[in-house]
Amino acid sequence: MEQTIGETQVLETMKESLKIFDVSPQDVRTDATFEALGLDSLDLVELSVKIEDAYDIELGGDDLEGIETVGDAVRIVLEKVAARA
Amino acid sequence: MTSRRRVAVTGIGAVTPLGVGMEESWKRLVSGTSGAGPLTRFDASGFDVKIACECAGFDPLDFMERNDARRSDRFTQFAVASALMAVEKAGWSGLPYSPEKVGVVVGSGIGGIATLEEQHRVLLERGPRKMSPFCVPLLMLNGAAGAIAMRLGATGPNHAVASACATGAHAIGEAMQAIRSGQADAVIAGGSEAAITPLALGAFSTMGALSARNDDPERASRPFDAGRDGFVMGEGAAVLVLEGWEAAEQRGAEILAELAGYGSGADAFHLTQPDPEGKGAAAAMRAALSDAGLEPSEVGYVNAHGTSTPYNDRVESGAIREVFGDPPPVSSTKSATGHLLGAAGAFEAAVCVHALRTSTLPPTINYETPDPDCPLDYVPNAARESSVDAALSNSFGFGGHNACLVARKAS
């Protein structure tokens, strides 16, 4: 399936944000789990704050609960951005 | 003396303003080098005090992965680095004892204050939701002790201690007790401080505790000198590996020294000033000597608390004279390192171990004008060769906490 521009952009932001967790960009694929990338629940909270700042959205505890893969996170971000518009 | 277990020191690690590593720090110490300079950790232009003793050249990535460094306040980074260097010196590859018999007692005066200040700013400027989820683990005073246990896989008794400037000495003392009681076979013990931050600097400055000799930082810390005007803030950590004596011998460890005595008490006088009669300080010294089974005359060197404040140095000199009558040489290594706060007592115990091993007494540098209230032999300005069998280290903390340790030459 072709990635839309929105997805690509968000994925790039994700790769950038994940650098501080020592995650190399090539490992950041939509099917990768955050657990496999070496992030625990506290890391996820920290990541979500960065994403919130990058897109001026709010990610609550409920939002984070369902997130297992990078793809899940990208989807939530796109939803929130669309809802804000 | 009962058949109480003896406590051996088998390894030492440190990060100080004199260098990364105990060997480096000791070398600079005995060469009379000062670790002081202009304060660079933050912009101190609005402060009355613009000098400090900083651990330049310390890179946490030399000791841990980036993720661990990110999850550690600077004080924890210092402590973990020191602990790793200490166990390497002790010849540990893995744990030489059952994990549940290897404990950690590493304290700090204030813990992760840099994290606290940074996160408080986030709270005020951006709200609670933007605070780091790592705020609590980074700022908690026990963070260093926990992190060290994780690195080593040590599941034995583990906690932090806090008694301001006496913290490092208390940590070692309590570790000694754990080994003596058999609760642990080995304890990683020491203290760490990384409080060169705006809040801490402002706080110490406003109470008048700090030297304001901004134009000449290297000569600002001048314990016992008539021109002393307060201490110089330092940062760093020192960690000792303590083991039960027989156990250390049995595994073929090189024993650096014995920790033979620990005295602990309170002034119960004032939050920051020492009891002018030095009764609490003298009592702690006597308790440490008695615990070691030594007469004052058997001690060849005293590492003073010697902060370079008008009060402490005068009162401490009086108390030392009271206890010893005719005191041995006394020096304050804070003249070189500045005040390492929670790490001071641990570093100074390590200094005593090195003094015993190398028969070298470190100097009190910047000693230029004697003060009639401080009439002792302070090993002024140059290290001195002297073979001693026992050394006493004093640490007196704000709040009136007194902790003294006695180290004996390994035999």
| Rg over C-alpha atoms of chain A, rounded to the nearest angstrom | 12 Å
* Largest interface in this structure: A-B, 11 and 9 residues
Given the structure, what is the number of helices of chain B? 13
Taking the sheet with the most strands of chain B, its summary is: 11 strands, mixed
- How many strands, what sense, and barrel or not for the largest sheet of chain A? none
Query: What gross morphology of chain B would you assign?
Result: globular
The ordered H/E elements of chain A are HHHH
Describe this structure in words.
The complex is a heterodimer of chains A (85) and B (411). Helices cover 58% and strands 0% of the residues of chain A. Chain A is built from 4 helices and no strands. The longest helix of chain A has 15 residues. Chain A is globular and about 30 Å long. By secondary structure, chain B is of the alpha/beta class. Chain B has 13 helices and 15 strands. In chain B, strands 1, 2, 5, 6, 7, 8, 9, 10, 11, 14 and 15 form an 11-stranded mixed beta sheet that branches. In chain B, helix 10 crosses helix 11. Classes of the chains: A mainly alpha (85), B alpha/beta (411). At the A-B interface, helix 2 of A face helix 2 of B.
Primary descriptors:
heterodimer, A: 85 residues, mainly alpha, 4 helices, B: 411 residues, alpha/beta, eleven-stranded mixed beta sheet, two-stranded antiparallel ribbon, globular
Summarize the structure.
The complex is a heterodimer of chains A (85) and B (411). Chain A is 58% helix and 0% strand. Chain A is an all-alpha fold and 85 residues long.
Describe the secondary structure blueprint for this structure.
The complex is a heterodimer of chains A (85) and B (411).
Chain A: H1 5-18, H2 41-55, H3 61-65, H4 70-84
Helix pairs in contact in A: 1-2, 1-4
Chain B: E1 7-16, E2 19-20, H1 22-30, E3 36-38, E4 51-53, H2 66-70, H3 74-89, E5 102-107, H4 113-126, H5 135-139, H6 143-152, E6 158-159, H7 167-180, E7 186-193, H8 198-206, E8 236-244, H9 245-250, E9 257-266, H10 279-292, E10 301-303, H11 310-324, E11 330-331, H12 334-337, H13 344-358, E12 360-361, E13 384-385, E14 390-397, E15 401-409
Parallel strand pairs in B: 5-6, 5-7, 10-11, 10-14
Antiparallel strand pairs in B: 1-2, 1-8, 1-9, 3-4, 7-8, 9-15, 12-13, 14-15
Helix pairs in contact in B: 3-6, 7-13, 10-11
